Every structure is written in C-alpha cells, then in structure tokens.
Amino acid sequence: AAFDPSLSLILLDTEGLLGATSKQNQRMRLLLKVLAVSDMVVYRTRAERLHNDLFRFLGNASQAYLKHFTSELKAMSDRCGLEVPLSSLGPALLVFHETSNTKLLGCDSRTPGGAEQLLQKRFHQLSLSTEAFNSVEYVGTRTTLPPTNFSGFLEVVCRRASNTSTRSRRPPAIVYNVLKALSMRFNGEITDDRITTSSFFPDEYFSCSNVCLSCGARCTKNMNHLKDNVAHTAKSRCRYTHQYNNKVLICRVCYERGLEVAVNPKTSASTDSKWFGLATYAWSGYVLECSTCGIIYRSRQHWIGNQDPEGSVVRPELRHVWLGNEAFLKDNSNGTQRVLDGVNFAIQSVTDYSRGPTKAITAWLTDQVAPEYWRPNSQITECHQCKKPFEDGERKHHCRSCGEGCCDVCSTKSMSVPERGWGSAAVRVCDDCFRTGGNSTGKQLEAAREGRGLMARRITEVAQSTLDAMTSAVEYPLGIVKDVARPDYWVPDHELVKCHHCGKPFAGTTAKHHCRACGLGFCSQCSPELRPVPSRGWDHPVRVCVDCSEKKGEL
Asked: Would the pTM of this model clear 0.70, i.e. be above it?
C-alpha cells in the first residue's frame, strides 16, 4: 500500500488472481470487499491477448457485488445519511493492457471508445456484464524494450481522479465504515466441500452456510441475516423426514382467509381442566386446536367414520429444518408423560403426607435395635468425616467400628470388625477407621456385652436388604416406562449428571426434574415454578426451570 500526495489517493496492490495463501476462499472474499469500497479499480495484464479469465473475473465480481453487497451498502447509506446510495456508485474500472508483439485493442478503430465497445462485446458473448462498475475504460501500451511507458495510464488515472461528474471521492471515514460493515456482515466460515468452481466469487462466499437437516438445501440468505430477524429460506421444496417430523399442519379455514395458523396434536384443549383433559384424551383421542377457530378436530369424535384431518380441516406443509431453529418441531404428543405426572402427583401427595411420621418411626426403630456404641440418628446432623450437613431424605451410615454417622461418600470401605461382635465378615466402616485399623479401646471387654445388641441389628439389616432388593425390582420396570413416556425433547435421565442451572451433581436421592419448556434437567431448587407451556402441549401449569419461568410472554 502507498499514498500518492499529488492525487490524494491510497494505492493498494491486491495482487489480484496472482495472490496465493492457505485460505484462498477468504482472500477472494476480502478482495471483493476491497473492490466494493474503492473509487477506482485497475486490472493490469501483460498477456498478448485478453483471455477469458479477465472477463470472467470482472463479470463475476460485478454479479456478486449486485447480488450480495447492494442491500448492505444501501443500508450503510441510510445510516451515514448520504444523499446518493453507495450501492449505485460502484468503482471505475481501468483495464491496463501491456503487450510486446501484438497490437493494442481497438488500435484499428477510428472512432473513440472502440476498445471499450470491444470489451463490452466480449462480456456479452460470455453472458456477463459490468453493471456494478460506474465506467469501464481500456488503456493499452506496447513495450518492446523496458521500461514500461505509464504516461498514458497516468493521464487516465489523473483524469478519472479529478472527474466528479459521475461521483465524488468517498471520504476515508466512509471507506473505513463501509469496509467494516461488509467485514462484519460477511465473516462466516467457508467450507471447501460446498464451494462451486464455476465462479470466481461463488455464492458460498457470502450466503448463509446453514443447510436444511432434512433435504440438504442451502439457505439463500446472506451471512448473519438472523441478526436482522430474517428467517432461513431455500429455493427448493423440502422432503419429509421421520427423524425431524417436519410436517406442519395449517388450519384450512384460516389459510383460506389469508392467515397461516399452525396447529399441533394435543392431549387436551386449553379450555379443559387438567384431570378432565386426560380423561377426555383417553376417551376421544388427541385434539387439534386453532388459536382462532378453537377445537377443529378430535381423533375419536365418532364411533366410526372419523375423517383424516389432513383431508378436511388442516392443510399439511413440509418445512425446512434449520440447525438451531426447530421451533415448529415441538412435540405435543405427551399424553403418556402427563399420565405419569398425574400418578407421580398422587404418589408424591401421599408420600409428603406420610413422610414425617415414616421418617420418625424409621429413625426410632433403628435406634432401638442399634448397638450401644452407635450414635443415635437424632444426634447425627452432619457427616462425622467431611462435616457435610445431611439433607432431607439423605441416608446416614454408621461405621461398624467407631459407631459415628457418615455420609455415603465417607463410608465406602469394608473390613472385618470381630472385636465389635460382627464376626469375620467385612462390614461398612468409615474411611478413618479403615485407615487406622479400627477402634481398639476396650475391644475385648465390650465384645461380649455388645453381642446381644448386634444380633437385633444384623437381623434388621437383612430385612432392610431384602426390602431394598424388592424396591429395586419395582423401580427397574418403572424406569423403562418413564423412558418410553419421555417426550423427544427431554434429555434422557441417564445423561443427567448435574443440574443445568446451578451445576449441583445428581447423586444419591437427589431428584431429577425436567423443565417442560426446554427439556433440560434441574434440581428441585432450580425448578420451583409452575407455568403453562402451550407450545409443548402443556396447557396447564407444569414445572419449569428458573430460566424459562423468567421469560416474558407465552412459553
């Protein structure tokens, strides 16, 4: 780059088609941005004849400028308050042709502008145009012996620089802001596997890289169009894919009125109560409810002769599936999960009602059959090892050696404690006793006295192990049912390792709750709110996370 003080011009050598870099696609895109903000573009060639590459390069640059840069430059003109839009003021084009043996273009023509007419003829023969350039001028020189004679070229440059009949020079601030705007707009990644080689400036340099997940069609909008709240579009029609369920049902009555209202199968109407809606779902099947027309279809409205909704009340359409924008794919077929929610609600109500007495009886019974050296459950409020407070419902483990209460993490070791009357079998001990070999104070003296108390405790543990095995046998098929009933947008239970909001690990008895809006897993503290989620088919208040509960408007 250089600055010419006599003409007040900044000269930038882009090396054109001769430049080489490891990121050639990004370089070509940047080259067109520089051409777009320039006042004058010089294409220099030393070929004896003007090859097609010259015309294809300039023609493709003009086409890409008009297709992709025009709208952005027009918006830039409005922001800068320019009277003439930038999009209509493309650069002036100078073709500087230097030969050694052949005649210059148009040298035999006696009419002025003959060379330019020949250039335009060549562009027309190749189905190309130079519409983006405000002028096209040919400058030739014949060099038999160096150095090159630039006098004719400099004369044309000076004349073009001082000529304001077409347009005046752009101030440096405007040039900088325009180049910055173009760089911010067209800065997406360019994937080499989707680049077409038929153009020097293919659409992939400037268009959105998002591809339909269902049919593979590419978005035709410019890069970063989502910032302007412009949705993805594609020229071709999409195909149905069961994986993405990209069929949308449009209310036929609203469509004939000029409206496009999408309807989704739901277990109950928004006017039905929670339990009545489930009963109605079991009796009359799913419903289609339009926000304008109300309930337009029930799948089992009559005993026989129910019509297909696609042929009577709705109009099916196939939509493209764009990554990160599957709003119309929300699954409302959650009747099974709603039934499970109802069963869980009933069980939870009974459990909450009886939880206090049950825990009190359990703790009292455990203390009655515990050995004398065990610390009573009522006195254990925190783990003896890590000092972590016991949460509500968290199990307390007694070390068989020292008798203190520990959490599950601090009492994972096992060893024989015969001095306490547990015989030669390995039993649960805390980490400290496992490391030191156990409590040896008065071991032999206390063994006989504690033997009778241990017999009751060992019988209790056998009974408790049997009950735990029965509980696991019941919970196993229940887990299978829950996985089958889980809506598609819910994260599976086995993938939930921590709360999505606070990051608290799911361990022990910590309950995992799914947000009915986003489908992610949360703990009880991070999902306390209840809100209707009609977009997911939950017309009545259901559990949502703290993030979704704070969202304004309808979920």
From this structure: no
